[in-house]
Structures are given as structure tokens and as C-alpha cells.
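dumping the sequnces here before i forget
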Amino acid sequence: MTKREEFIYNSLKLIHQKGFKATTIRDIANVMECDVANVYNYIDSKQGLLESHLFSINEEFHNNVDDILASGYDPKAKLEKLISLYVEITMERPLEASLLVNEWRHLKEPKQTKFINERNKYERKVKKLLQAGMGCGQFRDMDSALATNMFLSSMRWLFQKYTNNKSKINRFDLERELVNYVYNGIGVSV
Amino acid sequence: MTKREEFIYNSLKLIHQKGFKATTIRDIANVMECDVANVYNYIDSKQGLLESHLFSINEEFHNNVDDILASGYDPKAKLEKLISLYVEITMERPLEASLLVNEWRHLKEPKQTKFINERNKYERKVKKLLQAGMGCGQFRDMDSALATNMFLSSMRWLFQKYTNNKSKINRFDLERELVNYVYNGIGVSV
DNA sequence: TCATTGCATCAACATTTGTTGATGTAAATA
DNA sequence: TATTTACATCAACAAATGTTGATGCAATGA
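..and the predicted 3d for all of it:
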């Protein structure tokens, strides 16, 4: 691992643990065991650090989402692909993924508005997907706004909390359990 | 609304919007349209403000949880009461509730450890409840750790996001939809 | 060989931010 | 009336924090 990669990893880890605002340049310098000024060999500004992390993971995520939605699958299959995508990103870029949940609030304008707009757009897509599924009888009839939020919150948990327990469960088991929960809940199937 | 209540409400609102770390005493003074020093007529310190808000709502929540768990209801009924409790607290103390999700990270030791311990204890109780439900055939067989996290994340969404849209949906409709989602998912019941 | 690149060092500055002390004043309470 | 309570004002400080500029040095690559 080059020093630059080490820096990226450490800064991400710190921001994930303490939050962006609570993470100081001196904190980063500290875990890197280097001088404070040295941090600026890798970044332009603290804001820039947040922005690069956030928009990098955000773009990857949204691109993949669009690929899924543009595919020929039916709504149920698309939803499963979407869940699969969440699991994949969580496994591969856990620290960055967790930032998407909380730290976007510390973006400054106009980046923050940009981020929020993209997120809203994404949430509308999910809502449409759920409505499509209801329309063709694959999902039961629900308040679609509420269902969207509940689905999204079930996924957000992954991004937010699955940074620690990485090793504990197999990726495909996790995926299957998630699909099952979203699709059947915790009740016994009759 | 007395000036003190106005202060509590405004400070909560700011912390909810910007996060605790990003909310400055001067921000609070600003929305109160008063001098900076004046804020200290109501608080001892910024930390103290966070602590009082967090532990107040936390205690109320946990007390109610314990009452539910100590009751004679079966697991399914207990879970429904628990969901009902989430909705109730969300409706009555939305701003404080939202703090429980994110802002506990900014507690200082030993308060933070105390908070985390209580939360862990709570999560273990939920896990036990789910296991009990599986044991008596009310819930289907699942990885109980995973199921706990998914249930909790579905509830967390309320605390985190339901501060805006208060008026849009009836409380009991919301409750019913939540129970339905947790219990049956979004799939069609066969 | 020469220039570039990656990283280190040290000192310093301007802001932001939490906090305090001393004081005033008007209303509520006893 | 006397006293406490609630709130306001102003000035100021110490610490934390983001950022810069100038410089050195060793390895890489042309």
C-alpha cells in the first residue's frame, strides 16, 4: 500500500468513525504519523476531501442503478438486482458507502444541492419501480412513498453499519436474507 | 411559548438540521436574535446541551420499551407495541428522536460508553424478542442478528426522516403500514 | 545528468468557536 | 418593599482548527 493509498484509507476511516466535522486535519496527521502540513500533499482542502470521496462513490452507485433500471428485467428482478448492488458496494467500499448516509450534510453549496437533487432523483426511481411492481401484481398494494422509505432504510443499514462485521456472514447469504426480509418480512408465510 | 422553551426548540432544530458539531453557539444566538453570551443563561455548556437532550429522550424510550417487554403479550403483540412506541415518540418528540440516530457519537466519555451500553442492551432485548417469536412460530426462521438489524433500521428511518412530513399521513395508518412491512414485506401474500 | 515526483519539516497566521466575568434591568414573587 | 428570577449587553480570552509558504531530500524516470 503506497503512502497515498494509506492516506486515503486512514482519512476515510477517521471520517467514518468520528464524522467529517469532528475529524481534524491534525487527527489525520496523527494517525499518519506525519506533520500537519504534510496532509496537504494529498488534498487541496478538507472540503475537497469530502467532496471527492462522496461524489466518487455516489457516481458509481447511480451509474449501476441506472444500468439495472434500464434492463429488461421485471420489477421484482430489478429490485433484487438493486439489493445485490447495495451488498456489493457495501462489501467493496464500505467506508465510502457509509459516508453517503450522514456526511453529505457537510457539503457546501452548490455541491450539496447537487447531491440532494441526485438523491431525490434516485428515490423517485425507486418509487416508480415499486409502483410498477404493484401495477403488475408482483408487490402488494401499499402507500408507495412509505414503502420507498422503508425499503431505502433497510438498505441504508448496510451502508451505515456493515463496515465492522465484514467477515461474519457470507455475501450471498446476506443478499438472500435481505431479499427475504424486504419481500416477505419477518412473518411466517402462510 | 416561553423564551426558554423557544430556546430548547430552536437549539434542537439547529442540531437536527446541521448536526451537533456543525451547530455553533453563535448559530443558536443568531436564530434566537440574542447575544452570544445570552445562550449561557440556558445551558452550562454545549456538551451539556447535547447530553440533556439525548439522555432525556433515551430514558423515556427505554422505560417504555421495558414496560412492553415486561408485559404478558406474546412476541408478535410485543413487536407491534414496540412499533407503536416508535411512532408515538416520533410524533411527539421528533427532533430529539432524530438525535438518537446520529448525534450520540459526539458524546464525550464516560457518557458515550454509557449510551452505547444502553443501546447494546436494547438491541439484545429486541434480538431476544425476535428469537422468542421464532421459537413459538410467530416469526419465520431467520438469522436473528440480521433480522434485528433490519427491523431496527426500518424503525430508525422514522426517527431520522419523519421530522418534516409530519402532517402528511395519519398516525394509525403509518403504524399499520409499518407493521405490515415488517411482518409481510412488500411481496404479495399468497 | 537533469528534472520531476513524492514526501518531510518547521514556523506562522487568520478564523472560528466555546466560554467567562461583570453588569444592567424589568417582571414576578415573597 | 425587598428579593429573586429571567433575560440582556459588552468586551475579551484561550484553544482549536484550516491553511500557507518556503525549503529539503531522496528516488524515479527521461
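Residues 24-26, 36-37, 40, 45-46 of chain B lie near DNA strand C (CB under 10 Å from a C1').
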